Automatic annotation (TrEMBL):
The lineage of its organism: Bacteria, Pseudomonadati, Pseudomonadota, Alphaproteobacteria, Rhodobacterales. GO terms for cellular component: plasma membrane. CDD domains: ABC_6TM_YknU_like. Residues 354-590 form the ABC transporter domain. It is found in: Cell membrane. Residues 31-320 form the ABC transmembrane type-1 domain. SUPFAM superfamilies: ABC transporter transmembrane region, P-loop containing nucleoside triphosphate hydrolases. It comes from Pseudotabrizicola algicola. This is ABC transporter ATP-binding protein. Keywords: ATP-binding, Cell membrane, Membrane, Nucleotide-binding, Transmembrane, Transmembrane helix, Transport. Its main location: membrane.
Length: 599
């Protein structure tokens, strides 16, 4: 998912308003944060006034040569300044605490919505979007949005009070000196905004480069055995180093931007302060203003220095939030291609008849290439239907269309006359289980992996499913049995063991339709025979579809479909197809010769 650097003003405003509304989901915390900000800002503006008055009072008392009175005034003023400072610190703490609380609540809500959306988006979306990009979006972009209340809305209130009211107080006291004191504000505001926008642009680019870096690392870790087997470590290091250097170069550029802008802003501030000291000192000499007034001006400048610099941060916060928020909401607003129809009923299975009726299908990534072309066949409860064909003939596509991972382009698929697109997805996928060749295991116990579809299943059911999948014997040899924890990516298990666990996991659901997508390819012939025998014994309870490359796997099938370019080229039992002496017989002869040659 490429980064978006520009967002229209209207779209950006809608995004800002949408995030602001999310913050208002915790109105109590928002109210406390805003009120604490107002009070802390007001108290901060009061401090220069108090200091100025204290200095003027001290001068008056010193002129009277009354030491006792001087100490009393000093103590009184110091106590007042200390009290105001303590109160300001308390309200600032409340502001920071509740601002962060609101931000974290918003972040929590967004994370939940983001994760939920990913669970429901169609397979076609995940086919084209890299998981590393989704992780980056769900971490960096979401973090940018989470911080908006504290760095955007609250900071806006703070700056309006400090700069607006503070500037008005200075102008009211001495307009000319106020102009000098505030002369650094336009430059610092402009410089800070420009630099922050440039930092934002480079931050988005850095995010892209970090996404590339995470993809390189993710692919390396997923394929570490291949890397080690081919001694490709140096090549992988070059790839990783190139991606790292690009990210490092951009990080250096960001440091240069930040240091350069900070230096320029500090210089302008010091020049303005020097002018105020010079002109203000002359005015004090001439008796136009008091020394306390000059001190108040200088204190105001010290207070305003940081808020003025934060103007750029404020601009950056709004810009970053509009961009990151637009990307997150673009995903959250996606409508799954495969979704429940309005008021869709539950799938109800009585007779148990699965039909493909003139089904044509092309994947979204290649819409011009039909994988299935006007395909029609029927499978009934109690039947085992075998499907075989060359690579790209559409075997796996059939397996993915039955549970409605994708929707058909033309025609329809029905179970007992119910179009799969018209029933609830959850009920369909409870009734259809697909055992895939590529098996994923979670980093948890074998028991939890097998019972993933029914976490509250009894141990007896788990053991029975394991028996049917011919994996219980292996599990019994383990010291912790079913409580043995599967390592990351199930690296400690062989391919055949992973496939048998996957079969057990699907059998746990007691599905009405069970589809094997070449899911016994890594299992030895004897174990496969035992599994197929067990499935044959239970076949009366369900529709069973066996997709395989090895024809020996299909000997138990009642009927075999031979696919070619998405169409049925031949159909019949093993004996009928052998007698036909067509594609199936030729493939059988080829595999037989291959096995004999290997022997």
């Amino acid at each position: 998912m490429a980064q978006t650097d520009t967002v229209s003003w209207s779209a950006g405003l809608k995004t800002i308003l949408r995030i602001s509304r999310m913050a208002l989901d915790t109105p109590g915390k928002v109210a406390i944060a805003i009120l604490a900000t107002i009070l802390a800002s007001a108290l901060q503006l009061w401090i220069p006034v108090l200091l100025g008055q204290a200095i003027d009072q001290m001068q008056s008392v010193m002129a009277m040569a009354d030491a006792e009175a001087s100490r009393g005034v000093l103590l009184q003023t110091a106590t007042l300044v200390l009290g105001v400072s303590v109160l300001r610190g308390i309200f600032t703490t409340l502001q920071n605490y509740f601002s962060e609380a609101v931000g974290h609540h918003t972040g929590y809500a967004l994370r939940q919505a983001y994760y939920d959306k990913i669970q429901h988006l169609s397979f076609g979306f995940h086919d084209r979007v890299h998981s590393g990009d989704l992780i980056t979006l769900g971490m960096l972009d979401l973090e940018g949005v989470r911080m908006f209340f504290a760095t955007g809305l609250v900071r806006l209130v703070l700056l309006v009070i400090l700069i607006g009211f503070g500037g008005a107080m200075l102008v009211q006291t001495d307009p000319f000196l106020a102009v000098l004191a505030l002369s650094f504000v336009p430059f610092v505001g402009w410089k800070s905004s420009v630099s922050q926008l440039r930092l934002r642009r480079t931050w988005l680019e850095l995010q892209d480069r970090m996404s590339v870096l995470s993809r390189v690392m993710e692919e390396n870790l997923a394929g570490i055995k291949v890397v080690r087997a081919f001694s490709a470590g140096p090549h992988e290091m070059v790839k990783f180093r190139d991606a790292s250097v690009k990210a490092l170069d951009l990080a250096h550029e960001r440091v240069d931007l930040r240091v350069g802008s900070t230096t320029a802003m500090t210089l302008s501030y010091l020049v303005a302060m020097a002018l105020v000291l010079l002109v203000g000192g002359l005015k004090v000499q001439a008796g136009e203003i008091t020394l306390g007034t000059l001190a108040a001006f200088l204190t105001f400048m010290t207070i305003l220095q940081m808020p003025v610099r934060q103007l750029g941060m404020l601009v950056n916060s709004f810009a970053r939030t509009s961009t990151c928020g637009a990307r997150i909401f673009a995903l959250l607003d996606l409508k799954p291609v495969v979704a429940d129809a309005k008021n869709a009923p539950e799938l109800e299975i009585s007779e148990g008849v699965l039909r493909f009726e003139g089904v044509s299908f092309a994947y979204p990534s290649a819409p011009e290439h039909k994988v299935l072309d006007d395909l029609s066949f029927e499978a009934k409860r109690g039947e085992i239907i075998g499907i075989v064909g060359p690579q790209g003939s559409g075997k796996t596509t059939i397996a993915q269309l039955i549970p409605r991972f994708y929707d058909v382009g033309e025609g329809r698929i029905t179970i007992d006359g119910q179009d799969l697109r018209s029933v609830r997805l959850r009920s369909l996928r409870r009734s259809v289980a697909v055992v895939q060749q590529d098996v994923f295991m979670f980093t948890t116990s074998l028991e939890n992996n097998i019972a993933y579809g029914d976490p509250w299943a009894s141990p007896r059911r788990i053991e029975k499913a394991s028996d049917s999948a011919q994996i219980s014997g292996y599990i019994d040899t383990l010291p912790e049995g079913y409580r043995t924890v599967v390592g990351e990516r199930a690296a400690s298990l062989s391919g055949g063991q992973r496939q048998r666990l996957s079969i057990a996991r699907s059998l746990m659901l007691k599905p009405d339709v069970l589809v094997f997508d070449d899911s016994t390819a890594a299992i030895d012939a004897r174990t496969e025979e035992s599994i197929l025998t067990a499935l044959k014994d239970e076949a009366a309870e369900r529709i069973t579809i066996l997709i395989a490359h090895r024809l020996n796997t299909l000997r138990h099938a009642d009927r075999i479909l031979v696919l070619d370019h998405g169409r049925i080229a031949e159909e019949g039992s093993h004996a009928e197809l052998m007698a036909l002496k067509g594609r199936y017989a030729a493939l059988h002869a080829m595999q037989t010769l291959s096995h004999e040659g290997a022997a």
